[in-house]
Amino acid sequence: MGVVQGYDKYAFEPFAVTVDLAVLTVRSGALQVLLVERGQEPYAGRWALPGGFVRPDESAEDAALRELAEETGLTDVSGLHLEQLGTYSDPGRDPRMRVVSVAFAALLPDPPEPQGGGDAAQARWVPYDSAGPLAFDHDRMLADAHRRLGAELEHTCVAAAFCPPEFTLGELQQVYETVWGTTLDRPNFRRKVLATPDFVAPVPGAARLTGGRGKPAALYRSGGATALHPPLLRPATEGRSR
Amino acid sequence: MGVVQGYDKYAFEPFAVTVDLAVLTVRSGALQVLLVERGQEPYAGRWALPGGFVRPDESAEDAALRELAEETGLTDVSGLHLEQLGTYSDPGRDPRMRVVSVAFAALLPDPPEPQGGGDAAQARWVPYDSAGPLAFDHDRMLADAHRRLGAELEHTCVAAAFCPPEFTLGELQQVYETVWGTTLDRPNFRRKVLATPDFVAPVPGAARLTGGRGKPAALYRSGGATALHPPLLRPATEGRSR
DNA sequence: TCAAAAGTGTTTAGAATACACCCATGG
DNA sequence: CCATGGGTGTATTCTAAACACTTTTGA
Question: Positions of the region Disordered (chains A, B) (predicted)?
Answer without folding.
Answer: 220-242
